[in-house]
Amino acid sequence: MLAVAVFLAVFSLPFVYNTFNVGIGGAGSVAPKLVHKKGECVRDADWMRRNHMQLLVHTREDAVREGVRVTDHGIKGCRTCHPNRAEFCDQCHGYVGVKPECWDCHYYPSKPEKTA
Amino acid sequence: MSLDRRDFLKIGGAMACGTALTTAVPIVSAMTEANETRADAGNQWAMVVDINKCPPDCTACYDACRKENNVPHFAEPALDIHWIRKVTFKQKGVPGAEERNMPVMCFHCEHPPCAHVCPVAATFKRKDGIVLVDKHRCIGCRYCMSACPYKARSFVSKHVEHEPGQNPDVPLRMHGVVEKCELCVHRVDKGLEPACVEACKAQGGGMAFGNLNDPQSEVSKIVRSGKATRLRADLGTNPRVFYVGI
Amino acid sequence: MNITFTKVEGNSSGYWTFMALAGAVASLAPLTALYMFINGHHVTGMTNQVPWGMPIVMAVYLIGASAGSLVLSAMSSVFGRTEYKPFARIAAMLAVLLITAALMAIILDWGRPDRILVPFFHFQPRSMFSLNAILYNSYMLVGFLYLVAQFKNHEVWQKRLGLLAVFIAVGVHSGTGAIFGFVYVRELYGSPLLPPSFIAAALSSGTAMMIIVLHFTFQYTGRRLDERLIHGMARLMGVFMLIVLYFLFVENVTRAYAPKNYEAVSFLLLHGGKYTAIFWGGLIISGLVIPSLIVFNPKTSKAMGWILIASFLQLTGVLFERFIIVIPAQIMPLELFADKEITSVFMDGGYADYSVSLVEALYSVGLIGVVVFGFGLCIKLWPMIPEEAVHSSGDL
Ligand code: SF4
Ligand code: SF4
């Protein structure tokens, strides 16, 4: 009995955590609003919303390992149309409570650069 | 649409995880359209350093490397990261031997022991001979550091933060992975020379970079002349960085 | 001969205190690992000069003890030494626990333990590490199945799995030795003798550990242990220790013969400061010579107290041996030229230094705690220990 209780407590930790922190519908979450830009993305918006990470991973592997430098499918490509990371990546990731590590290393300013 | 092994594994993994297969397939077809690779097996990049032209106090290549590649600087010498370093050497066992300098970096070995020992193939040799660390994949086991004969590798043992003035073209490194000289692969893929070579040339120094397969390139001419040597050639790793004047 | 295995009651306050203590110590391992991961490895004594430190020493040590105790467990079923039958279960269980702790030691020491799944997706067969990952995991599995076969009292499968486990144990050991032996650029690593000498040290430390574990388990659970069994094991340990000594001798003499190794060998054996002290004091004298003297001296070889001392010395001696295998090779400078002296800001040409930091020390102790905690748990959950262990040749 005790074991089951402990298991349930540990198991539900992420849910509890998300309810009280960020996360869909959690406390303090603001529904994301994507600032629409003129022009087309490399895929339609709906597809991108679900699958952009796979595209990015694939581009990453090809770029690092095979030297395929197709920038428009990589994060440099994102940066050209969405110069502001805070409005683009961060708000949605914050809303769904995922923390990708990309920006620990890669350069993607959260404010648009003045030049360019 | 062709599936390579990696895609196959990905899809397998996706299926195993219960993810819909349909999400993985369209990507594969998209990527094979534009498969323009800059890592051409016809190019075998190499470097020649004429150390007779190294003035004793010159640090142009080291400085250029740190700046170009955002190499972090840690205060403790044992933890600091060096992609290229200045080594002073003199003849052993002779009194009053003359001291000389040379730059030492990753030699992009033809048979890289670092890549052979890497359990996840995070370190690998690109088709054009550049040995790279995939820092997205490296698990930080540090086997490669034990195996590299030239101490070319450093472990990132601290957090590194973005700072103004860094080169936006080169990502920083997360802590817990191993890194080393990348032969400025981002520049080479654009058709430029590595930053150290560019800085050295600007000083009138003796570094040259080029394609070993191209008989007209400066490096292949020097290497063919037999005047260039490699470090620890006895190990059979066949470094791609040659020295003149040791 | 019929042996009845029973669980320990595990209700006494003594048991719970023991478990609480062991649990607290065990929790040190994940906690320090988390600390290392959050802060980065600069909190440890490991540097760019000495990338492998105490965690790797511990991993190698635990793997050794694991293989050693597995071979002991197989003594009865595979090699027909039925007098060791009462210990088969404990030994097999310890083998599984130790290899688990060893894997934990390796993985938590990675710079990115969060990438634990990466090796499953990207396998690189040329790396000794990947091959070892397969070996360790299959070893863990076979050891577990072997244990199950013992519980089911299935003679045939016990034998088969025991034999398989012994083979894999030898493989695990050779593989672990090869991790270092295949690094050909460092004089003190690259040696074809490393795999076999690893096995020898594994067997002696495994036996030493079993002696200690058996004695205290039987004592504290109030069961009878025939001392003659321990005497036999002590003699076995003595033989293994002599083999270890022999390997060390051959390895160093071979190395010392080539002039290019003069520096490395004299560093290790003569002027290496703490490394030399550990080699002679910790490993040779207190780890091998004194225990051998104890177990081969007729006066002390039958006294439980002396045997325990010898086992303890040998157990720590092998820890020092692992330290001597892993660390000094990294302390030695790498030679870029065969005949030039070099210096640089990256400490080329100089001896590096390594001291065990507090974090690593706690981590290592924690790993042992994990094994002890697992042991306490298993003897409560399953019938591991025999009611009494008597030498098969009859009662005293
Ligand atoms: S110099 Fe070292 S890191 Fe560079 S390729 Fe050779 S072995 Fe690998
Ligand atoms: S530290 Fe990284 S690059 Fe080096 S061997 Fe391990 S996984 Fe490979």
Characterize the structure shown.
- The complex is a heterotrimer of chains A (116), B (246) and C (396).
- Chain A has 116 residues and is mostly helical.
- In chain A, 54% of the residues lie in helices and 0% in strands.
- Chain A folds into 2 domains: 1-30, no CATH class; 31-116, no CATH class.
- Chain A contains 6 helices and no strands.
- Chain B is of the alpha+beta class and 246 residues long.
- Chain B has 2 domains: 1-36; 45-244, Alpha-Beta Plaits.
- Chain B is built from 8 helices and 10 strands.
- Chain B has helices spanning 5-16, 25-33, 60-68, 113-117, 143-147, 185-188, 195-202, 218-225; strands spanning 45-50, 84-91, 100-105, 123-125, 131-133, 154-155, 178-179, 207-211, 228-229, 241-244.
- In chain B, α3 (60-68) runs antiparallel to α7.
- Chain B is globular.
- In chain B, 49% of the residues are buried.
- Chain C has a single domain, classed as Formate dehydrogenase/DMSO reductase fold.
- Helix content of chain C is 68%, strand content 3%.
- In chain C, α2 packs antiparallel against α6 (155-181).
- The mean pLDDT of chain C is 87.
- The interface between A and B is medium-sized, with 23 and 33 residues.
- β2 of chain B pairs antiparallel with β3 of chain C, so a sheet runs across the interface.
- The complex binds iron/sulfur cluster (SF4) (2 copies).
- The site of one iron/sulfur cluster has 14 residues of chain B, from α5.
- One iron/sulfur cluster (SF4) is lined by residues 117-118, 120, 122-123, 133, 138-144, 178 of chain B.
Q: How would you describe this structure in keywords?
A:
heterotrimer, B: 246 residues, alpha+beta, Alpha-Beta Plaits, two-stranded antiparallel sheet, 8 helices, C: 396 residues, mainly alpha, two-stranded parallel sheet, 5 strands, binds iron/sulfur cluster
Task: Summarize it.
The complex is a heterotrimer of chains A (116), B (246) and C (396). Chain A has 116 residues and is mostly helical.
